[in-house]
Write a structure and sequence with these properties.
Layout lengths: L22 E6 L8 H10 L26 E8 L13 H15 L10 E8 L8 H5 L5 E3 L5 E3 L10 H4 L6 E2 L6 E2 L5 H4 L6 H5 L5 E5 H17 L6 E3 L12 E5 L19 H27 L1
Length: about 300
Amino acid sequence: MAGYDLQTRVWPGAYGEDARPRMGFFTDTSVCIGCKACEVACKEWNRIPASPHGFTGESYDNTIDLGADTWRHVAFVEQRKPLQLDPAGPDTSTLAQTAARGALAEQTGLQTYQDGDDLRWLMASDVCKHCTHAACLEVCPTGALFRTEFGTVVVQEDVCNGCGYCVPACPFGVLDQREGDGRVWKCTLCYDRLKDDKEPACAQACPTNSIQFGELGDLRDRAEARLAQLQDAGLQEARLYGADPDDGVGGFGAFFLLLDEPETYALPPDPVDTTRDLRGIWGSAAAAAVTLGGALVAAVLGGRR
Protein backbone atom coordinates (compact mmCIF):
# COMPACT_ATOMS: atom_id res chain seq x y z
CA MET A 1 0.00 0.00 0.00
CA ALA A 2 3.05 2.24 -0.34
CA GLY A 3 2.56 5.52 -2.11
CA TYR A 4 -1.10 6.00 -1.17
CA ASP A 5 -2.44 8.15 1.66
CA LEU A 6 -5.50 6.25 2.81
CA GLN A 7 -6.28 8.40 5.85
CA THR A 8 -9.78 9.83 6.17
CA ARG A 9 -11.08 12.53 8.47
CA VAL A 10 -12.32 10.15 11.17
CA TRP A 11 -10.49 6.96 10.29
CA PRO A 12 -8.44 5.28 11.60
CA GLY A 13 -7.84 7.73 14.46
CA ALA A 14 -11.37 7.49 15.83
CA TYR A 15 -11.07 3.72 16.16
CA GLY A 16 -7.58 3.42 17.57
CA GLU A 17 -6.54 -0.21 17.84
CA ASP A 18 -9.94 -1.32 16.53
CA ALA A 19 -9.35 0.28 13.12
CA ARG A 20 -9.14 -2.19 10.25
CA PRO A 21 -7.41 -1.79 6.89
CA ARG A 22 -9.44 0.44 4.57
CA MET A 23 -11.53 -1.79 2.32
CA GLY A 24 -13.13 -0.98 -1.00
CA PHE A 25 -14.13 -1.95 -4.54
CA PHE A 26 -12.24 -1.82 -7.83
CA THR A 27 -14.71 -2.19 -10.70
CA ASP A 28 -13.03 -3.17 -13.98
CA THR A 29 -15.67 -2.24 -16.56
CA SER A 30 -13.67 -3.85 -19.40
CA VAL A 31 -14.85 -7.29 -18.28
CA CYS A 32 -18.40 -6.42 -17.18
CA ILE A 33 -20.95 -8.47 -19.15
CA GLY A 34 -24.02 -6.60 -17.91
CA CYS A 35 -25.53 -9.69 -16.30
CA LYS A 36 -26.77 -7.71 -13.26
CA ALA A 37 -25.87 -10.54 -10.89
CA CYS A 38 -24.44 -7.85 -8.59
CA GLU A 39 -27.77 -6.01 -8.53
CA VAL A 40 -29.67 -9.18 -7.65
CA ALA A 41 -27.19 -10.27 -4.97
CA CYS A 42 -27.25 -6.80 -3.41
CA LYS A 43 -31.05 -6.76 -3.25
CA GLU A 44 -31.28 -10.28 -1.85
CA TRP A 45 -28.66 -9.86 0.86
CA ASN A 46 -29.75 -6.40 1.99
CA ARG A 47 -33.49 -7.09 1.56
CA ILE A 48 -33.93 -4.05 -0.68
CA PRO A 49 -37.43 -3.52 -2.11
CA ALA A 50 -38.02 -4.15 -5.80
CA SER A 51 -37.54 -1.20 -8.14
CA PRO A 52 -39.36 -2.11 -11.38
CA HIS A 53 -38.77 0.97 -13.52
CA GLY A 54 -39.18 -0.89 -16.80
CA PHE A 55 -37.24 -0.14 -19.96
CA THR A 56 -36.63 3.43 -21.07
CA GLY A 57 -36.61 2.59 -24.77
CA GLU A 58 -33.05 3.89 -25.00
CA SER A 59 -31.22 0.94 -23.48
CA TYR A 60 -31.54 -2.60 -22.11
CA ASP A 61 -30.98 -1.09 -18.66
CA ASN A 62 -34.10 -1.49 -16.49
CA THR A 63 -32.87 0.03 -13.23
CA ILE A 64 -31.86 3.38 -14.79
CA ASP A 65 -29.92 4.86 -11.85
CA LEU A 66 -28.73 4.44 -8.29
CA GLY A 67 -31.32 5.15 -5.62
CA ALA A 68 -32.74 4.18 -2.25
CA ASP A 69 -33.94 0.88 -3.73
CA THR A 70 -31.02 0.35 -6.14
CA TRP A 71 -27.64 0.24 -4.38
CA ARG A 72 -25.88 -1.34 -7.38
CA HIS A 73 -26.74 -0.17 -10.88
CA VAL A 74 -25.35 -1.73 -14.05
CA ALA A 75 -25.27 0.96 -16.70
CA PHE A 76 -25.60 0.06 -20.40
CA VAL A 77 -24.00 2.57 -22.77
CA GLU A 78 -24.45 1.92 -26.48
CA GLN A 79 -22.14 3.78 -28.86
CA ARG A 80 -22.76 3.51 -32.60
CA LYS A 81 -19.53 3.52 -34.58
CA PRO A 82 -19.25 4.88 -38.14
CA LEU A 83 -19.57 2.18 -40.78
CA GLN A 84 -16.72 1.58 -43.23
CA LEU A 85 -18.62 0.82 -46.42
CA ASP A 86 -15.62 0.57 -48.74
CA PRO A 87 -12.64 -1.31 -47.27
CA ALA A 88 -10.55 -0.19 -50.23
CA GLY A 89 -11.47 3.46 -49.66
CA PRO A 90 -9.38 6.14 -48.00
CA ASP A 91 -9.55 4.44 -44.61
CA THR A 92 -7.86 1.09 -45.15
CA SER A 93 -7.19 0.44 -41.47
CA THR A 94 -10.63 -0.99 -40.65
CA LEU A 95 -9.69 -4.65 -41.10
CA ALA A 96 -6.49 -4.14 -39.12
CA GLN A 97 -8.40 -2.45 -36.34
CA THR A 98 -10.95 -5.27 -36.28
CA ALA A 99 -8.15 -7.83 -36.04
CA ALA A 100 -6.52 -5.81 -33.27
CA ARG A 101 -9.78 -5.76 -31.31
CA GLY A 102 -10.07 -9.51 -31.66
CA ALA A 103 -6.53 -9.96 -30.38
CA LEU A 104 -7.26 -7.58 -27.52
CA ALA A 105 -10.30 -9.63 -26.51
CA GLU A 106 -8.26 -12.82 -26.46
CA GLN A 107 -5.20 -11.43 -24.70
CA THR A 108 -6.65 -9.07 -22.10
CA GLY A 109 -10.23 -10.15 -21.50
CA LEU A 110 -11.92 -7.25 -23.29
CA GLN A 111 -14.87 -9.13 -24.67
CA THR A 112 -16.03 -8.89 -28.29
CA TYR A 113 -19.63 -8.33 -27.19
CA GLN A 114 -18.44 -4.96 -25.88
CA ASP A 115 -16.75 -3.88 -29.11
CA GLY A 116 -18.41 -5.23 -32.25
CA ASP A 117 -18.40 -4.12 -35.85
CA ASP A 118 -21.10 -1.44 -35.61
CA LEU A 119 -21.83 -0.93 -31.91
CA ARG A 120 -19.65 -0.52 -28.89
CA TRP A 121 -21.20 -1.62 -25.62
CA LEU A 122 -19.89 -0.04 -22.45
CA MET A 123 -21.18 -1.70 -19.29
CA ALA A 124 -20.36 -0.61 -15.78
CA SER A 125 -21.67 -1.54 -12.35
CA ASP A 126 -22.02 1.72 -10.44
CA VAL A 127 -22.19 2.05 -6.66
CA CYS A 128 -21.68 4.53 -3.81
CA LYS A 129 -18.09 5.80 -3.98
CA HIS A 130 -17.43 5.75 -0.20
CA CYS A 131 -15.43 8.97 -0.61
CA THR A 132 -12.41 9.81 1.52
CA HIS A 133 -13.92 13.28 2.07
CA ALA A 134 -17.61 12.43 2.20
CA ALA A 135 -19.85 15.49 2.02
CA CYS A 136 -22.90 13.43 3.01
CA LEU A 137 -21.24 12.54 6.29
CA GLU A 138 -20.18 16.16 6.88
CA VAL A 139 -23.71 17.60 6.59
CA CYS A 140 -25.64 14.89 8.48
CA PRO A 141 -27.06 16.54 11.64
CA THR A 142 -27.98 13.34 13.49
CA GLY A 143 -24.88 11.18 13.06
CA ALA A 144 -26.89 8.70 11.00
CA LEU A 145 -24.03 8.67 8.49
CA PHE A 146 -20.77 7.47 9.97
CA ARG A 147 -17.35 6.16 8.98
CA THR A 148 -16.83 2.50 9.89
CA GLU A 149 -13.66 0.89 11.17
CA PHE A 150 -13.05 -0.23 7.55
CA GLY A 151 -13.07 3.36 6.27
CA THR A 152 -16.45 2.95 4.53
CA VAL A 153 -19.48 5.26 4.83
CA VAL A 154 -22.71 3.76 6.19
CA VAL A 155 -26.22 5.07 6.95
CA GLN A 156 -27.86 3.97 10.21
CA GLU A 157 -31.50 3.76 9.21
CA ASP A 158 -32.67 3.78 12.84
CA VAL A 159 -30.95 7.17 13.38
CA CYS A 160 -31.79 8.86 10.06
CA ASN A 161 -34.54 11.46 10.52
CA GLY A 162 -35.20 11.94 6.80
CA CYS A 163 -33.97 15.56 6.70
CA GLY A 164 -32.43 14.93 3.27
CA TYR A 165 -29.43 17.25 3.74
CA CYS A 166 -27.09 14.55 2.46
CA VAL A 167 -28.96 14.10 -0.84
CA PRO A 168 -27.83 17.32 -2.56
CA ALA A 169 -24.45 17.18 -0.77
CA CYS A 170 -23.38 14.05 -2.67
CA PRO A 171 -21.52 15.06 -5.88
CA PHE A 172 -22.56 11.78 -7.54
CA GLY A 173 -26.28 11.81 -6.81
CA VAL A 174 -25.99 8.49 -4.98
CA LEU A 175 -28.09 9.20 -1.91
CA ASP A 176 -31.84 9.05 -2.17
CA GLN A 177 -34.85 9.03 0.15
CA ARG A 178 -37.09 5.99 -0.04
CA GLU A 179 -40.63 6.73 -1.17
CA GLY A 180 -43.15 6.25 1.62
CA ASP A 181 -40.32 6.05 4.15
CA GLY A 182 -38.42 9.34 3.87
CA ARG A 183 -35.15 7.96 5.19
CA VAL A 184 -31.96 7.77 3.13
CA TRP A 185 -30.58 4.42 1.98
CA LYS A 186 -27.43 3.48 0.04
CA CYS A 187 -24.67 0.88 -0.31
CA THR A 188 -23.02 -0.07 2.97
CA LEU A 189 -20.28 -2.10 1.26
CA CYS A 190 -22.01 -4.95 3.12
CA TYR A 191 -20.80 -3.72 6.51
CA ASP A 192 -22.44 -6.67 8.25
CA ARG A 193 -20.51 -9.10 6.05
CA LEU A 194 -17.23 -7.21 6.52
CA LYS A 195 -17.53 -7.59 10.29
CA ASP A 196 -17.70 -11.35 9.74
CA ASP A 197 -14.70 -11.27 7.33
CA LYS A 198 -16.93 -12.02 4.35
CA GLU A 199 -16.80 -10.58 0.85
CA PRO A 200 -19.62 -8.17 -0.10
CA ALA A 201 -22.51 -9.90 -1.85
CA CYS A 202 -22.08 -8.10 -5.19
CA ALA A 203 -18.39 -8.94 -5.53
CA GLN A 204 -19.01 -12.56 -4.55
CA ALA A 205 -21.74 -12.89 -7.19
CA CYS A 206 -19.83 -11.24 -10.07
CA PRO A 207 -19.01 -14.05 -12.56
CA THR A 208 -16.22 -12.18 -14.41
CA ASN A 209 -14.47 -10.62 -11.40
CA SER A 210 -15.37 -7.19 -12.74
CA ILE A 211 -16.13 -6.16 -9.14
CA GLN A 212 -13.03 -6.78 -7.05
CA PHE A 213 -13.00 -6.37 -3.27
CA GLY A 214 -10.04 -5.97 -0.96
CA GLU A 215 -7.71 -3.57 0.81
CA LEU A 216 -7.83 -0.27 -1.03
CA GLY A 217 -4.09 0.09 -1.51
CA ASP A 218 -3.82 -3.39 -3.02
CA LEU A 219 -6.76 -2.67 -5.32
CA ARG A 220 -5.14 0.53 -6.58
CA ASP A 221 -1.92 -1.33 -7.39
CA ARG A 222 -3.93 -4.00 -9.20
CA ALA A 223 -5.86 -1.35 -11.13
CA GLU A 224 -2.68 0.39 -12.28
CA ALA A 225 -1.36 -2.90 -13.64
CA ARG A 226 -4.62 -3.63 -15.45
CA LEU A 227 -4.70 -0.12 -16.94
CA ALA A 228 -1.16 -0.50 -18.24
CA GLN A 229 -2.10 -3.85 -19.79
CA LEU A 230 -5.03 -2.37 -21.68
CA GLN A 231 -3.15 0.71 -22.83
CA ASP A 232 -0.22 -1.40 -24.04
CA ALA A 233 -2.76 -3.38 -26.06
CA GLY A 234 -3.86 -0.18 -27.81
CA LEU A 235 -6.81 0.93 -25.69
CA GLN A 236 -5.46 4.42 -25.04
CA GLU A 237 -8.82 5.85 -23.94
CA ALA A 238 -8.90 3.53 -20.89
CA ARG A 239 -8.49 5.37 -17.59
CA LEU A 240 -8.88 5.02 -13.83
CA TYR A 241 -11.68 7.02 -12.23
CA GLY A 242 -11.53 7.76 -8.52
CA ALA A 243 -8.14 6.18 -7.81
CA ASP A 244 -6.34 9.51 -7.32
CA PRO A 245 -6.16 10.51 -3.62
CA ASP A 246 -5.52 14.12 -4.70
CA ASP A 247 -8.86 14.55 -6.48
CA GLY A 248 -11.75 16.68 -5.22
CA VAL A 249 -13.02 14.05 -2.78
CA GLY A 250 -9.67 12.61 -1.68
CA GLY A 251 -10.11 9.48 -3.78
CA PHE A 252 -12.90 6.92 -3.82
CA GLY A 253 -13.28 3.88 -1.64
CA ALA A 254 -15.01 2.32 -4.68
CA PHE A 255 -13.23 3.30 -7.89
CA PHE A 256 -13.39 2.25 -11.55
CA LEU A 257 -11.48 1.43 -14.69
CA LEU A 258 -13.41 3.10 -17.53
CA LEU A 259 -13.06 2.67 -21.30
CA ASP A 260 -14.13 6.22 -22.13
CA GLU A 261 -14.67 9.65 -20.58
CA PRO A 262 -16.55 9.62 -17.24
CA GLU A 263 -19.34 11.67 -18.83
CA THR A 264 -20.05 8.74 -21.16
CA TYR A 265 -21.09 6.76 -18.08
CA ALA A 266 -23.05 9.72 -16.63
CA LEU A 267 -20.33 10.30 -14.03
CA PRO A 268 -19.02 13.79 -13.11
CA PRO A 269 -15.56 14.38 -14.63
CA ASP A 270 -14.17 16.34 -11.67
CA PRO A 271 -16.19 15.58 -8.52
CA VAL A 272 -15.59 17.89 -5.57
CA ASP A 273 -16.50 17.60 -1.88
CA THR A 274 -19.42 20.03 -1.78
CA THR A 275 -18.55 21.11 1.79
CA ARG A 276 -14.91 21.88 0.98
CA ASP A 277 -15.37 25.65 0.71
CA LEU A 278 -18.01 26.10 3.40
CA ARG A 279 -15.59 27.38 6.03
CA GLY A 280 -14.31 30.07 3.69
CA ILE A 281 -17.85 30.96 2.62
CA TRP A 282 -19.03 31.34 6.22
CA GLY A 283 -15.90 33.33 7.05
CA SER A 284 -16.56 35.70 4.16
CA ALA A 285 -20.21 36.00 5.17
CA ALA A 286 -19.21 36.83 8.75
CA ALA A 287 -16.71 39.44 7.59
CA ALA A 288 -19.34 40.97 5.31
CA ALA A 289 -21.83 41.06 8.19
CA VAL A 290 -19.31 42.80 10.46
CA THR A 291 -18.50 45.32 7.74
CA LEU A 292 -22.18 45.97 7.08
CA GLY A 293 -22.87 46.32 10.81
CA GLY A 294 -20.03 48.80 11.17
CA ALA A 295 -21.33 50.80 8.24
CA LEU A 296 -24.83 50.93 9.73
CA VAL A 297 -23.50 52.05 13.11
CA ALA A 298 -21.41 54.74 11.45
CA ALA A 299 -24.42 55.90 9.44
CA VAL A 300 -26.60 56.10 12.54
CA LEU A 301 -24.00 57.99 14.58
CA GLY A 302 -23.27 60.27 11.66
CA GLY A 303 -26.95 61.05 11.22
CA ARG A 304 -27.31 62.10 14.88
CA ARG A 305 -24.69 64.78 14.46
